Amino acid sequence: MTTMNKRILLMLGALCLVLFLQGTVYAHSDTTYTIHDEQGETVYITGWKVNVGDQFLTEKNKRYEVVSMEGSQATARFLGEVNITEYLPDQAKQSWFAGILKPSIASAQDNKGKVAIYHTHSDESYVPTDGTDSIYGNGGIYKVGDAFASALQADGMAVVHSDARHDPHDDMAYERSRRTAATLIKQEQPDAIFDVHRDSTPPEVYKANINGEDVTKLQLVVGKYGPTGKQIEDYALQLKANSDQMHPGLIKGIFFAKGGDYNQDLHPRSMLVEVGAHTNDRPSAERGIALFADVLPAVINKAGGGAAQGAQQGSEQQQAGAAGFGSTAAGPSGATKSMGWIIGLLVVGAAAFLFLSTGSMKEAKSKLKQFTSTEFANFLAPRKKRQEKLNEPEEQKEKDE
Questions:
Q1: Which has more confidence, 142 or 307?
Q2: What is residue 2's three-state secondary structure?
Q3: Are 115 and 302 in contact (CB under 8 A)?
Q4: N or C: which end of the chain has fewer CB within 10 A?
Q5: Residue-wise pLDDT tens digits, 194-204
Q6: If you write DSSP's letter for every residue of 113-128 in order, what string do you get?
Q7: Which range among 8-17, 106-115, 287-296, 333-342 has the greatest average pLDDT?
């Protein structure tokens, strides 16, 4: 290979790497995104990476879609106000049956369901309490998960809290945590599974006082990519509806990120929850997530008829997740999408190298034709002869011998 060809290959390799990194979408960044409506009023603030086409539901249940971006500033179009009460359970129906089925309800309340908890970003921490925003493999987020587990257990639910690490804090962390989530779903068969994070915004974005306690608010994140996007969206709205009723102001909003699935394709009740930001103190985050735990029993509703349907759908999704990452049913995982980028870039790079090394499109086509007709044919020839030999009639074989 000539020196010129080596240089061309190095340049193409560097170009492929740059293009690949540009195609990688990281969930969090050090940037705080401020979203305005079309009149210029600030309607949402998040550390989650914002893209045109993303949608969000505010604390007051107004839904918007991002229509333009300029740096960390975004403009969103108002889509309408969501009647969140439509997502509440049928309280009247429950009250009517309460007197007749009291023994059955009491029995069901002894088993309010099982929740699994894990952390994709193992390093996430809270600066005022932990002294830093990141502790490799042992972030303060685990203690927030512990507080969530304790509160759920106090509410009568079974809990499994995974301490699996998924560092470093990059986009592939979701592929590493996918194995954890799939294992939890297969082995524990939870009624719901939560990936607990913290956001990265100024402290006032998440600060709140509820029931006389200083707490952090929560943000729910729904991945719109994949076949379960609408199902997870409805589940998030149910969580917010119940939270608004029990602890108004606890959930600051729901962010609908169009570009990812965040492993929510594995289970119909899978949710990514942000508990405060790195600028908030961890005890406030622990109190906030403890209040959120109160919401779960009503949403999971083991005694309700809808739970059986959810369990059946969950089983189907679990099988899809256990069958392999990025299966047709589950949708492509992060690694599958990344592999598609790599293959595409390699094809483009090979075509560019062929053109540059020959000097013209005509010569490039001629060289490609020669390769496919001669080199590739010669490569397959021995295999073809072996196959023809195997397919010969027995009489011809004996004659040859």
A1: 142
A2: coil
A3: no
A4: C
A5: 999 999 999 99
A6: -EEEEE-SSTTB--HH
A7: 287-296
Lookup result for tokens 């309607």: 43
SS (H, E, C) 340-352: HHHHHHHHHHHHH
Structure tokens at 15: 């170009």
Q: Where are the domains of the chain?
A: 80-328, 361-401
Q: Which run of H or E residues covers position 194?
A: strand 192-199
pLDDT for 203 equals 98
3-class SS of residue 74:
strand
Distance CA 87, CA 181 (A): 26
Q: Is there a contact between 231 and 317 (Cβ–Cβ < 8 Å)? A: no
Q: Which CATH number fits domain 80-328: 3.40.50.300, 3.40.50.700, 3.30.460.80, 3.40.630.40?
A: 3.40.630.40
CA 115/CA 293 separation, integer angstroms: 10
56 near 254, Cβ under 8 Å? Answer: yes
Task: Please tell me whether the peptide bond between 168 and the residue prior to it is cis, using omega within 30 degrees of 0.
Answer: yes
Which is higher by pLDDT, 353 or 327? Answer: 353
